[in-house]
Amino acid sequence: MKPGMRTAGVVGAAFLAGAVLGPVVLPPVVSALAQESGSRAETYRLLNLFGDVFERVRAEYVEPVNDRDVIEGAINGMLQGLDPHSSYMNARSFRDMQVQTRGEFGGLGIEVSQEGGYVKVISPIDDTPAAKAGVKPGDLITHLNGESVQGLSLQEAVEKMRGERGSAIKLTIRRPGAETPIELSLIRDVIRPQVARFRLEGNDIAYVRLSSFNEQTDTALRNAISTMRRQAGSNLKGVVLDLRNNPGGLLDQAVQVSDDFLEQGEIVSTRARRPDDAQRWNAKPGDIADGLRIVVLVNGGSASASEIVAGALQDHRRAVVLGTKSFGKGSVQTVMPIPGNGAIRLTTARYYTPSGRSIQALGISPDIEVLATREEGNAPLRDREADLRKALRNDNGAQETAPVPPVNLPPGVGDKVSRLPPEGAPSFDPTKPETDHQLQQAATLLRAWAAAEPQRRAAR
Prior knowledge:
Pdz3 Domain
């Protein structure tokens, strides 16, 4: 229902009540003021209820309570009751968040959410204690140092996982498919993730993996592409941009990374509660890949900023998206500092791709589906945004959504790509690119594409 229609409904009800209950029908302005006054009175009554409960807890709880802890717990409960991504950060957590967005933080190196009272791993960050210990996307962390995480807010659980470099922590993990809990001992470290890893595949394919979107991402990507273009020279046939298991990060970095490959047009837009708060970001001339063909790799761990980039390049047909469906986190969180008391992270808008598709709870579907393993085809679907408790709905109906522009590949090129690894293929080993089926299929696609259209430059 549109805002204007909702207002009209309220005013109509006020007139009806006046006509039935008394001989005097209030003018519309007076009626609206009366309703506003009644709403305010109800708000004050509920705030009094909160105060009564707070005083009862202070006076009668079995043990003395800290006022700040109780109030902060109440605030966090209020925010977490809205959706999975709104929360309260105390002063320490706020400082940690600011450090993390700068590209350096202390802890284990995992992006997490909350599910059923447990901490759920969205993705481990490359080359961190969590990744080295074998933590996997989809793992449920049930205990920290033997203590259950049930009853902890997500922020409280994250704080317990953070700590001084060199200190130890034990995680108890429930993993899908494992019959018994898994115990992992990790040593905390200062996390300085290398946000962009890059190399040449076979001297003709530029491969760059972005692990997150922090303040260093765009600079790191530009350096990676320029370095590989110098190394390969005229041999370069295309770029593989790997966003698998990239949990996202800063919006401005997602916009800049998308702009790096686009010459013009919309990158992403946001729509908030009030129409006047809608925003739109457009590309500026300049393509760091100089028109080279691009394949973007995504999977169920590609979220938020990763989906913005994949959606923008897909809608403009600047890239072919390959892999499996992304996570579907299409909401904007605004961090609002509270002087002296940390900050709140509040969901304030939804993201939309250039064609008007809402990312929320749907994600980005690949142009070409390629599974990482043969087992993945028979395994239960990996949990995504839509599976999270109180996840925002997708508000963009199919009838309102522009279709994704078709993939315009030369005849037969798409047939070169294999959806599944061959029977008996070796298990994936991060140190051996030849075991990465999705990456190898992306390279195969780019080489076949270049061979079929040697003179054609990718659309800008």
